[in-house]
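Please fill in the sequence for the structure shown.

STRUCTURE ENCODING:
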């Protein structure tokens, strides 16, 4: 019998900004709970679950997301999704998209405002916990994709660009049950230059 040893294969990365700089749109208290408690728990659980599995040798978190299922998938995807989520915000964000992304948004949705409205509607309509994603296919065509629980469009060969966390833990401290208001508040700190950067990297990294 092999004794299971705890590993720290995956690490919780610090937020890319101080906790209080997204206020009043996302409070420091929400970020402390969301990042330091919820996200940290997914990373910790993932590390414990992969001990003595082939995933202990994975070269990236994305690899685990793409190849796992069950509890390992749930925790790996939640770790991936949260890192991606937190990285899209900035205290002084760029509020409009430009260039190729702006063109793709206009082509698919008519305008950035219409894109936001549809994502807000889909976030409110998603029953239970999950994520609403803006993603692109390999040709750069955009789609809004709702996923339950830890779901991520990577598993259908799509490239995530932007995500809305509609788990109650993401908004209950600041907005209580008002999911629509919580989603609307996110646009104030969503940095479109980050989304443009993700869009420009499609197909280049793998
Ligand atoms: Mn969350």
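FILLED IN BY: designer on duty
SEQUENCE:
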């Amino acid at each position: 019998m092999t004794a299971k040893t705890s590993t720290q294969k995956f690490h919780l990365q610090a937020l890319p900004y101080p906790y209080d700089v997204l206020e009043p749109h996302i409070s420091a208290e929400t970020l402390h709970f969301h990042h330091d408690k919820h996200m940290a728990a997914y990373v910790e659980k993932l590390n414990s679950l992969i001990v003595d599995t082939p995933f202990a040798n994975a070269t990236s978190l994305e690899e685990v997301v793409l190849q796992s299922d069950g509890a390992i998938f749930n925790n790996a995807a939640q770790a991936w999704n949260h890192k991606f989520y937190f990285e899209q915000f900035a205290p002084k964000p760029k509020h409009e998209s430009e260039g190729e992304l702006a063109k793709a948004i206009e082509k698919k949705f008519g305008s950035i405002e219409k894109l936001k409205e549809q994502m807000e509607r889909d976030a409110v309509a998603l029953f239970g916990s999950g994520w609403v994603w803006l993603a692109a296919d390999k040709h750069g065509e955009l789609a809004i994709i709702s996923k339950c629980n830890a779901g991520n469009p990577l598993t259908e060969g799509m490239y995530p660009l932007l995500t809305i966390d509609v788990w109650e833990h993401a908004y209950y401290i600041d907005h209580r049950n008002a999911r629509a208001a919580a989603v609307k508040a996110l646009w104030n700190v969503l940095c479109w230059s980050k989304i443009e950067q993700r869009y420009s990297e499609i197909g280049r990294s793998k």
